[in-house]
Amino acid sequence: MTQFDGKGSQVTVGVPAGRLKPKRVRRNLDLTLWEKLYVFEIIRGMYVTTKHFALNMLGFVLPPRGKKRSVFTVYYPDEKVVLPPAYRGRPVLVMRPDGTERCVACGLCETACPGHAISIVGAERENGERYPLSYVLDMTRCVYCGFCEEVCPKEAIVMSSEYQGLAETDRSRMRYSKEQLLRSEESVKGRIEYIRRIYSKCNY
Amino acid sequence: MSEIAKDLHTEHMVINMGPSHPVTHGTVKFLVTLDGETIEDLKVEIGYLHRGFEKMCESGTWYQVFPYTDRLNYVSPLINNVGYALAVEKLIGIDVPERCKYVRVIACELSRIADHMTNVAAGGLELGAFTAFLYFVEARELVWDLIEMLCGARVTTNYVRIGGLKNDLPDGFKQKTLEVFKRCRVLWSDVNKLLTKNRVFIDRVRDVGTMPAEEAIAYGFTGPCLRACGVPYDVRKANPYLVYDRMDFEVPIGETGDNFDKYLVRMEEINQSMRIVEQALEQLPGGPINVDMPYYRWQSKDDIYNRIDSLIFHFKTVIEGIKPPPGEVYLAVESGNGELGFYLVSDGSGKPYKCRVRPPCFPLTAAMPRMMKGRLIADIVPTFDMINMIGGECDR
Amino acid sequence: MVADLIESVAKIVFIFSINLGFFAPILGWVERKQSAVMQDRIGANRANIGKFTIIGLFHPIADAVKVLTKEDFVPAGANKFFHTLAPFICLVPAIATFSVIPFGGQYELFGHHVNLVIADLDVGILFVFALTSLATFGVVLAGWSSRSNWSLLGGLRASAQMLSYEVAMGLAIIGIIMVFGTLKLSEIGAMQENFLHWGIFIQPLGFILFFTCAVAENKRVPFDVPEAESELVAGYFTEYSGLKFVMFWMSEFLEIVTISGILTTLFLGAWHIPFVTDAMLLSFFQFAGPNGATILAMLVNIATFFAKVIFFIWLQMTIRWTLPRFRYDQVMRLCWKMILPLSLINISITGLVLLLWIK
Amino acid sequence: MDASVTLQRLTERFGDSILETHSYRGDDTAVVKKEDIVALCTFLRDDGKLLYNFMMDLTAVDYLGREPRFEVVYHLYSLRYNRRVRIKAGVPESDCSIDSIVPVWIAADWFEREVFDLYGIAFNGHPDLRRLLLYEGFEGHPLRKDYPVKKRQPLIGPIN
Amino acid sequence: MGSIKGRLGALRRSGQELLDSGEAERLLGGSVLFTKVESVVNWARKYSFFLYPFVTACCGMEFMSVAGPKYDLDRFGAALPRFSPRQADLLMVVGTISHKQAPVLVKVYNQMTEPKWVFAFGVCAVSGGFYDNYATVQGIDTLIPVDVYVPGCPPRPEMVIDGLMKLQEKVAQERWSDWPRGAAPVTDEAKLTEC
To answer: Where are any strands of DSSP class E within chain B?
Structure first.
């Protein structure tokens, strides 16, 4: 039964707590003599941990098919994790084939960014085209929320799947200028397809 | 004995379990007055992670609040997103399509599984069971892979939008979920074997931090801690939002409200959440996931790229923000720690006038002195872990 | 005379090189690696010289060298002498106790009688208890002299726990002494030649009780209440840094080895291989001539002794990573209300059986 | 509609002290005078037909430029009847205080301290009214509309 | 005989100031032994960080999974958390530091024993992230000297491991004259309004 006029979001009045049929979790857990003695439960616990130990050690000798070893760890610097297409990594500016950036310095990403990480100075070329004279993205303020990619009307800035080489030993080197942000179209092609698919008309 | 104690003139030892202490996860200070090992008096001081959530919400548009809601209860970020989006939709009076409701329920339940796993793991870690902690961190890693496939980020998801979602379920999601749940159930049973019947663990958590039901209600307990006291109050059953009324799941309750009950309720809720996700994946309907109303939901990129009126309208809504009708609304959702309420006041402008979050773990932390009076100092550890106080949510 | 000198120097060098040189650093690595693989992860394997990482064996060396160059910190106002003395009092008993444990039998080598134990005291077990009670002083001194609330609490808890568990350990061992009739560890070891005479079959309850008390005496996990990370930050060694902090760790690892040694000697038939008596062993190695045979037999016996020690070390490590921690009063209750009565019952049953059986 | 049973019983019992009631978007709301807030809350908790035993949330809103500048908002929930109500009490800036409802629900203790800390509304009769989230040396109440976002008062100064 | 006495006389001056001025090398002729010992010690420090996890906010979740099974920080010898500042050498500041927490952070940094490094984990520790308001410290390098900054909110475990490897490179090139660093040069009770 909805509580108010039809159009509002459907928060119905459900079963009050009194008449709800709950599931009791505590009933059969009083300690039998078996559990009062510490020893047997400790042995059961050690069985679990030793099973993990044995399986993992075995995993080194004859690894399961398709994996190098059965242990869950990824040896990061040597092996990399396959990231899903949705992953939001570092924001990058997309470069047109002729080397100029797609961005027309409209400033939408600058307003939509919650952390005010982007600061743009727009300018016009002689043929009247707008382009960003300077485009500074402060990586110390960016929180990878993806709003800039979502609002950009020109697909000029996208969240690439790069996440390496960002750690620095001094903070001033983390304010990326236009040159550090530019990426060729091919390298972010996957991401652009992905954007077109998720924001396409069929989802509305 | 008392006359001997008189001239023993022993005075109490005051210990400062400061914010940077292993048990307080870095955001709470306990001022403990000790008589030997028993706690005479406990003063709790919070606010070490107060980051000005409400002030930042009031200075951004309605859309820019989403990244801030991720960081409230950062163990289950999607539930905060969905809660805020539902509150704004209730304020505006729009309703999202069916498929979007199902995907939101799936996202919420995945986040709840991650929340309960992290809490039980941290509880085990603080008591010394480091292996159980790492088994559940491994299980949570698998659940996070699902959330990363869905939303693009592991912790700060920023996935839900007002009137819809950012993107639809990726393909192959259902098959991967069933795989992940199979492994999660194996790890769940491992931790269950390690902890539930283990006399050492039971001794540490049984009859510690007990709370009778009426007092729990008076203190404002909600969520697993209230259900552990035997009160079957769950917002998903009391005021079912989205499609929870079509889901068949049970609400586990305990008996005495001590830490062992809280642990058991959370372990049971992990199973129930897995059941809900599987049912939701079965009944998932087709159709769009966003409401087609340009005033409240950014339009699709096809329109923006090709039509000039959509482009102009897109500029207007992004710069000024959407404008819900003036008014106020309160909506509660069931988060990992209890009832997470959003109280929104809108004055018709693009910025929220007031965006209040009712933090479920706030009253639980307030009741810590009541639970700890007269207990031993070592009892603070399991009690504080089992109420799952999250800095971002408690201090906002 | 010279032969005796050589023999004892050889034994001392052998035991201390095994103990301090091999076991102490390796156990740090074993604990990290075993706990890692048990928890589905890898553990330290990145430290490399050139391109060899040899599964992380350089990490204990890296730890040691780093700790040597760490700042040696003494808290303000703390008594520097006691603060520095405490770790030594903790470490010395852990090393010295191994001198009483026989790691092999008695052999005739080149006409000289060789008894593979450093100090064959006829009050072996008593000596062991004397030294373990010394370690309590080190812990309490560390707790008191660091002038901080946490270490004081840690020190108090440690003193209460270690004292009460020494009593329980003493009573748990009396069953073995009654059965074997002697305190001399080498004699106890010799008597367990026959597989069915192993201590664990004669005194199963005694074995469980002694094992629990030994783990509690060494403050390992279910009983690591004095240095409970989550409650008392780092317990009695909160204020220690650098080498002194690692000496507390070293004493803990060495005590693991010592406990494994005592357990093997008393309960698991010291250096005997099951169903193989010394005579059979010597006859088996007859081809290598009398002296060669004794040397080979000696090596085999030493190897079996250390195999059993490694088994017990592995057992204690597994317990370390499986169980959560007791609360302080539960540790006390377990000792006085469960282990003590059980060991008294154990003594009375053993006495009854001895009376009826032997008579 | 049974939802407005609460408002009916409230207007019958406290007719004069209730200034206005509405049910915007289905949330029953009653704006009351701040003087008899405690009596009203006790009635809401103890009345047989209402039984609001949960005090879910207590917060304040700063309507700068309107006469009773602040408004303390209580959200209550009845477990037995599964109903919610919102009580709002206007608090003028001149006499910036209101009676504390800790005697009615003990949960209100920290909520009131937080409102005092961030808005500066004093609660008379509160057991120990101190700052909750901010530190003692902080002057001013940050969530007021006239407090600038970036006005920092750090305890320890920066290096550079 | 005289030159040896002269050399010893030079060494008798306070070792510290001698090391800074680099005169020791000129005197000892830059013997290979001097740099060798230093590189061995740096190698050892590089592969055995005892971590002090100063965890406050959402980055703590990512810190758990970095120390967890999938991205095992223990592979670098750095996952042994020591909660007492005396025994720790790597202070990992994980999450947002509010002004109320700032004195605690500076006190913990001062309590740490000497060869200590600071690892800013996450955007809030690096620069206050998107909490540019009255409550948050705008970057912990305004309080304590920081060695490595890792952006990201929260940073992926791979970015944390990148940061740790960058710190290891930095430690490998350190000289003994860099230590001791001493306490954090911070003024107490500074009341800054708009900054």
So the answer is: 13-17, 29-35, 38-45, 160-161, 164-165, 252-253, 327-335, 338-346, 354-358
Residue B10 located in a structural domain:
no
**Whether E58 and B156 lie within 8 Å, measured CB to CB:** yes
Q: What is the pLDDT of residues B186-201, one digit of tens each?
A: 999 999 999 988 888 8
Is the model's pTM score more than 0.90? yes
Tally DSSP H helices, then E strands, for chain B.
18, 9
How far apart (Å, rounded) are the C-alpha atoms in residues E193 and E195? Answer: 6
Which residues 6+ apart lie within 8 Å of B204 measured at CB? B127, B378, B382, C324, C325, C326, C327, C330
Which of D25, D79, D82 is the closest to A13 by Cβ? D82
> Of the candidates B199, B223, B215, B206, which has an alpha carbon nearest to the alpha carbon of residue B258?
B206
Q: What is the predicted ipTM?
A: 0.91
CB-CB contact of B73 with B115 (8 Å): yes
Residue C90 Cα distances to B58, B127, C237, angstroms: 60, 26, 12
Mean of all residue pLDDT scores within chain C: 87
C323 and B128 in contact by Cβ < 8 A?
yes
- DSSP 8-class letter at B333: E
Nearest to E99 among D150, D154, D160 (CB): D154
CA E126 and chain centroid, separation: 14
CB contact under 8 A, E162 and A141: no
Three-class SS of B97-116:
CHHHHHHHHHHHHHHHHHHH
| Edge-to-edge order in the sheet of strand A175-176 | A118-124, A130-138, A175-176
More confident residue, A31 or E182: E182
Name the residue in chain C with its Cα closest to that of E40: C65
Given B90, B268, B301, which is nearest A199 (Cβ)?
A: B301
Residues B203, C225: C-beta atoms closer than 8 Å: no
Tell me phi and psi for residue C233, to 5 degrees: 55, -75
Whole-number pLDDT of residue A1 = 31
Domain map (residue ranges) of chain A: 2-19+30-82, 91-199
Length of chain D counted residue by residue: 160
Per CATH, is A91-199 categorized as 3.30.70.3270? Answer: yes
Q: Is D21 exposed, middle or buried (0-12, 13-18, 19+ CB in 10 A)?
A: middle
Least Cα distance to C261 among C31, C103, C26 occurs for C103
Contact D46, D61 (CB under 8 A): no
Using a CB–CB cutoff of 8 Å, tell me whether A163 touches chain E: yes
Q: Which of A94, A154, A125 is nearest to B315 (CA)?
A: A154
Task: CATH number of the domain at B384, please.
Answer: 1.10.645.10
Neighbour count for residue D146 (Cβ, 10 Å): 8
Q: What is the pLDDT of residues B234-276, one digit of tens each?
A: 999 998 999 999 999 999 998 888 999 999 999 999 999 999 9
Confidence of residue B105 (pLDDT cuts 50, 70, 90): very high
Residue B39 lies in a domain: no
B348 shares contact with chain D (CB less than 8 Å): no
Residue B91 has pLDDT above 90, yes or no: yes
C-side interface with A, Cβ within 8 Å?
A: 34, 37-42, 208, 318-319, 321-323
Distance from the Cα of A87 to chain C's closest Cα (Å) equals: 25
* Edge-to-edge strands, sheet with B38-45: B13-17, B29-35, B38-45
- Whether B55 sits inside 8 A of E134 (CB atoms) is yes
Count of domains for chain B: 1
- Mutation for E interface: C71, C151, C230, C233, most E CBs within 10 A: C71
Domain coverage including residue B132: 53-394
Which of D134, D150, D158 shows the shortest C-beta gap to E133?
A: D150
Q: Which of D56, D109, D145, D152 to mutate to test the interface with B (most CBs of B within 10 A)?
A: D56
CATH no. of D4-124: 3.30.460.80
